[in-house]
Amino acid sequence: MRRNGPLALIFHTIFVIVMVAPILVVCLVAFTPEGFLSLPTNGFSLRWFRTIANYPEFIHAFWVSLGLGALSSLVALLFAVPAALAIARYRFRGRDALAALFLSPLMIPHVVLGIAFLRFFTSAGLGGGFAALIIAHVIIVFPFALRLTLAAATGMDRTVEMAAVSLGAGGWTLFRRVTLPLILPGVISGWALAFIQSFDDLSMTVFLAAPGTETLPVRMFLYIQDNIDPLVTSVSACVIAITMTALILLDRFYGLDRVLAGKGDTGR
Amino acid sequence: MSAVAEERSARAPWALTAPPLMLFVGVLLIPLAMTVMLSFHDWGQYKGIEPIFILKNWHEIATDPYYAEMFWRTFRIAILTTLLTALLGAPEAYILNRMSGRWKSFFLLVILGPLLISVVARTLGWALLFGGNNGLVNKLLMSLGAIRSPIPFMFTETGMVIALAHVMMPFMVLSVWAALQRLDPQIENAAMSLGAGPATIIRRIIMPQIMPGVLSGAIIVFSLSASAFATPAIIGGRRLKVAATLAYDEFLNTLNWPLGAAVATLLLVALVLIVVGSNALIERRYAEVFR
After folding, report:
1. Residue B130 contacts residue B235 (beta carbons within 8 Å)
2. In sequence order, what are the residues at sequence separation of 6 or more whose Cβ sits closer than 8 angstroms to the Cβ of residue A136?
3. ipTM value of the model?
4. pLDDT at B5 over 50
């Protein structure tokens, strides 16, 4: 194959700089020693990271986001693993329609989902509660949990299962000792991707969160609406650091290109 | 014995999919149906939501030019964002694909990684770069001599399109990159050996083969940009509304839920029609590529 020419490399360099610039500038401004938004020109300071401690609502929102992400991804997997096994192994009537339904939250705008859930949970008397947030997040992360589990279940070597059956294993033992360990990398990556989706969601959650159940993106968004100061950049820098760590782990564990390959595909 | 096993295997898929199916019917389809119904209800400042059947909200959206302008703006921003990501993302994916192993995976990580980084944080980055008349972008452009006076980016459609294109770019690169993986590198060499120049190779060999990737990337980018909330809300502020931010305002500020539900329903229906329609068109046009 031909190599990239100088023009292509210049284009590539500018492209990468523009892709990284907004993220970099947030992280740099977070270290400013000044009281206003500025790039740290004379010395770095951790003052704005220490200031976060004076804003308990950010810390509370962080814990809400963490709990919500971990729990909703786990619940989504409890539903997604059996569904993935059924879709991967059986040819039954309505199989394609079911798969399309389970992936449909990818196609529905999150703002519309937020509105639908707000209406639904308010009528059900759960408005603004943590339970409502969990259920809503289970729905939006379900496609990600399903897709990675499905990939693992489809690619699984079934002769191992047959061997286990011939040795007398069945039902729950078969699943726990043979099937689950075989699909575990897909399940864990599905959990991680689902967690990141839940942890990042603003468009839907902003409709459902009430004071006390605000997630970190919602808290940040509401803060930015009033004013942008270095505090919100230091909070963002922490969020970026957390995501980067998860990303690197995901890449080591499963391969980022594989995780992302199906993402955003509108469910075809 | 075998009849029992067969019966079990016929029931097994339904037993396994029943719990998620009930979940999806109960907390996805029913709430969506309730939202559509809500859009036909009446609302008043003092009486609140009145559950009667009325076309008031739909009539208001159809006749008030404010909504036509807002939906047209939403559409325009989504189209421009899609064009920008296609024009820059497709060449970048091609360049990436020609890099050697280690660089390729490194830059792929750098370009796709932002997909998973908080949208609020990424948009905040653009707000910092744009920031008023002496923002970094304007300073850079002026020192390069590209512009004389600062361009307003904050609270403008220009700024929204740039920030949205940045947020959506990974989807386009990913989609074109996937199309490039299916391409046989020997075809390029074959074309070269037959005397085709670089421009001809790109135009006649590469472009037709990656077009399905560009188009399916375009559908993803378009539908996500048309319904985006965070970026338009932060860059556009309260002045420049798109469908998603307008629905948010109706629900959480004006409290006119039925009108907000009508805006949301229209957005959903329009997007589903556009996405399903263009998917069908692409699959028919490029049937041989998908086979």
Report:
1. yes
2. A113, A114, A117, A121, A204, A205, A208, B27
3. 0.90
4. no
**Torsions phi, psi for A144 (to 5 deg):** -70, -45
Dig out the tokens for B86 from the structure: 């296609």
Query: Would you call A151 an interface residue with chain B, using a CB distance cutoff of 8 Å?
Result: no
Structure confidence at residue B285 (pLDDT): 82
Angle subtended by helix axes A216-226 and A180-200, to nearest 10: 20
A93 Ramachandran zone, left/alpha/beta (phi>0; psi -120 to 50): beta
Asked if A14 is an interface residue toward chain B (Cβ–Cβ < 8 A), one would say: no
Residue B50, beta-bridge partner list: B42
Separation of alpha carbons A116 and A102, rounded Å: 17
Question: Which chain A residues are Cβ-neighbours of B272 within 8 angstroms?
Answer: 107
Strand, coil or helix: B49: strand
pTM, full prediction = 0.90
Say how far apart CA B146 and CA B289 lie, in whole Å: 42
| Residue recorded with tokens 């990271």 | A49
- The CA-based angle B193-B182-A258, given to 5 degrees, is 140
Q: CB contact, 8 Å: A107 with chain B? A: yes
Measured CA to CA, the distance from residue B85 to residue B118 in angstroms comes to: 19
Tell me how far CA of residue A179 lies from CA of A31, A157, A187, B11, B18, in angstroms: 48, 10, 11, 20, 20
| Angstrom distance (rounded) from CA B89 to CA B174 | 9
- Lookup result for tokens 């080591």: A252
d(CA A99, CA A244): 31
Contact yes or no for A228 and B105 at CB 8 A: no
Amino acid identity at B185: P
Among residues B128, B172, B130, B136, which one has the least CA distance to residue B152?
B130
Residue A259 has pLDDT above 80, yes or no: no
Confidence band, pLDDT 50/70/90 cuts, at residue A264: very low
CA atoms of B61 and A198, how far apart (whole Å) = 33
Under an 8 A CB cutoff, do B126 and A22 touch? yes
Query: What one-letter code names the amino acid at A248?
Result: I
Environment class of residue A144 by beta-carbon count within 10 Å: exposed (0-12), middle (13-18) or buried (19+)?
Answer: buried
Tokens 């809503």 correspond to what residue?
A: A136
Quote the CA–CA distance of B50 and B187 in Å, as a whole number. 65
* Distance between CA atoms of residues B58 and B250, nearest Å: 14
